[in-house]
Amino acid sequence: MSDPFIGQIMHAGFNFAPAGWASCNGQIIPISQNNALFALLGTTFGGNGVSTFALPNAAGRSFLGLGLSTASGQTYEWGDVGGAENETLTIANMPQHNHAAVFNGVAGQTSATGSLQAYTGQTTAQVNTPAEGSFLANCANAGPSQVKIYVPAGTTGTPVNLGGVNITGGTFTPQGSVQVGVAGNNIPFSTMSPFLAVQTNIALRGIYPTRN
User: Fold this and answer.
1) Residue 44 in contact with residue 78, Cβ under 8 Å?
2) Structural domain spans, the chain
3) Integer Cα distance of 6 and 39 in angstroms
4) Which end of the chain, N or C, is surrounded by fewer C-beta atoms within 10 Å?
5) DSSP letter (8 states) at residue 93
6) E strand map for the chain
């Protein structure tokens, strides 16, 4: 194998860095022992730039060509890192949608006002038996033994719907709570493509590259 360029990155099927190479694990190394490599990398991947600098960290990462992406319009600079192995969706990530809601009413918490109309004074065409739509009225028979037309609450019998019932100014105030269905567990999901982990090394020794 010919000498590699200093700073060249190589994938290998074995799991170690051969002589003249180092694993790309982001480790900090001294400048004094690697002047040529420092001249190429600088502190792009870390280090203080005075006595140390860092190698690229390829552990758990895929490589991306630097420059302008025609797909996203984003420009990737040398040494940029980004992305995440797992993500959790938020409301901002989701499309607009609806959830089923259930209203749980509370019995006895409504109110209404109204009035029951009845005719007063002497009227004609009064009958003994009420029919649908009949009105209450004074008894047509004057005298000390007038017919009694009212009964106490709870009396048994067959009720009919009378005319003249007028509900006005009523209020209806529902009491209760609305429960919206809840789903999901906020569990992060993986965003990684199918992968194969291999050894990634960088050349510490070799040919110093020259620009075209």
Assistant:
1) yes
2) 9-63+193-203, 112-151+160-172
3) 10
4) C
5) G
6) 9-12, 21-23, 28-30, 52-54, 67-68, 75-76, 86-87, 101-105, 115-116, 118-119, 136-137, 165-166, 176-180, 189-190, 199-203
Looking up tokens 């739509």, which residue turns up?
133
Six-digit token string for 191: 């965003």
Maximum distance among all Cα pairs of the chain, rounded to whole angstroms: 134
Burial bucket for residue 47 (CB in 10 Å: 0-12, 13-18, 19+): buried
Q: Look at the domain 9-63+193-203 and name its fold.
A: 3.90.1340
Q: Residue holding tokens 């499309």?
A: 95
Question: What does each of the 212 residues of the chain score in pLDDT, given as a tens digit?
Answer: 689 999 999 999 999 999 999 999 999 999 999 999 999 999 999 999 999 999 999 999 999 999 999 998 999 999 999 988 888 888 888 888 888 888 887 766 555 566 666 666 555 566 667 777 777 666 666 555 556 666 666 666 676 666 666 665 556 666 778 888 777 788 888 888 888 999 999 999 999 999 98
Q: What is the helix, strand, coil percentage profile of the chain, to 5?
A: 5, 25, 75
Q: And the tokens for 136? A: 């209450």
Residues with Cβ < 8 Å from 100, sequence gap 6 or more?
180, 181
Beta bridge partners, 115, equal 166
**SS3 for 40?**
helix
Q: How far apart are CA 124 and CA 162, in angstroms?
A: 18
